[in-house]
């Protein structure tokens, strides 16, 4: 097993109420609220919505959860399959709500955004779902 820092801002968040959020929670050693530079857009897919993190000015932040996970060989590949080809996993600087700085693996959107993908003001996907009454995407993609 190896310890990995992962910043999650959408359906992978341990408190998102999704199957993959529970998968992350089962491997979690610790977690805390955090943010990364960027902006998110909402993308409709399958039975709900998921967020796409895109680069933005350094003052713009995306809210999420910094998780330290204990992963088995193959677990990162499982996450990559779940996220699909639309995302690229990369290391980014993370700032926790307590002010701590760390580096974590983050999934960035890597293709053109679908037309009509609304911006998520404030950078908080779960708060956006609650505010708009929309549902999180919960059906695994790519057979994961």
Order of neighbouring strands in the sheet with most strands = 1-5-2-6-7
Structural class label: alpha+beta
The number of distinct structural domains comes to 1
The low-pLDDT segments are none
Q: C-alpha Rg, in Å?
A: 14 Å
Element order: H for helix, E for strand: EHEEEEHEEH
CATH topology: Hypothetical upf0131 protein ytfp
Number of strands: 7
Give the proportion of residues in helices.
10-25%
Q: Which CATH C-level class is it?
A: Alpha Beta
Q: What is the overall shape?
A: globular
Task: Characterize the main sheet.
Answer: 5 strands, antiparallel
Fourth CATH level, the homologous superfamily: Gamma-glutamyl cyclotransferase-like
Mean pLDDT across every amino acid position: 93
Count every helix, treating DSSP H or I runs of 4 or more residues as helices. Answer: 3
Supply the CATH architecture.
Answer: Roll
Q: What is the straight-line distance between the termini?
A: 21 Å
Percent of residues in beta strands? 35-45%
Please render the helix and strand layout as text:
Elements: E1 2-8, H1 19-26, E2 28-37, E3 39-45, E4 48-54, E5 61-71, H2 75-83, E6 87-96, E7 101-109, H3 125-132
Antiparallel strand pairs: 1-5, 2-5, 2-6, 3-4, 6-7
Structural summary, described in words:
This is Putative gamma-glutamylcyclotransferase. It holds the Pfam family GGACT. Keywords: Transferase. With 144 residues, the chain is of the alpha+beta class. It has one domain: Hypothetical upf0131 protein ytfp. Helix content is 17%, strand content 42%. The protein contains three helices and seven strands; from the N terminus they run βαββββαββα. The strands form two sheets. Strands 1-5-2-6-7 form a five-stranded antiparallel β-sheet. Strands 3-4 form a two-stranded antiparallel ribbon. The longest helix is centred in the middle third of the chain and has 9 residues. The mean pLDDT is 93.
């Amino acid at each position: 097993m190896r310890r990995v820092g992962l910043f999650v801002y959408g359906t992978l968040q341990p408190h998102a109420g999704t199957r993959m959020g529970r998968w992350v929670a089962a491997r979690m050693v610790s977690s805390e609220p955090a943010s990364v530079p960027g902006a998110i857009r909402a993308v409709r897919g399958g039975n709900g919505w998921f967020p796409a993190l895109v680069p933005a000015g350094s003052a713009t932040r995306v809210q999420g959860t910094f998780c330290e996970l204990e992963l088995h060989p193959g677990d990162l590949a499982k996450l990559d399959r779940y996220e699909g080809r639309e995302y690229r996993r990369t290391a980014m600087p993370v700032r926790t709500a307590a002010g701590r700085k760390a580096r974590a693996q983050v999934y960035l959107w890597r293709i053109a955004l679908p037309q009509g993908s609304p911006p998520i003001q404030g950078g908080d996907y779960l708060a956006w779902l609650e505010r708009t009454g929309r549902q999180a995407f919960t059906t695994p993609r790519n057979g994961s």
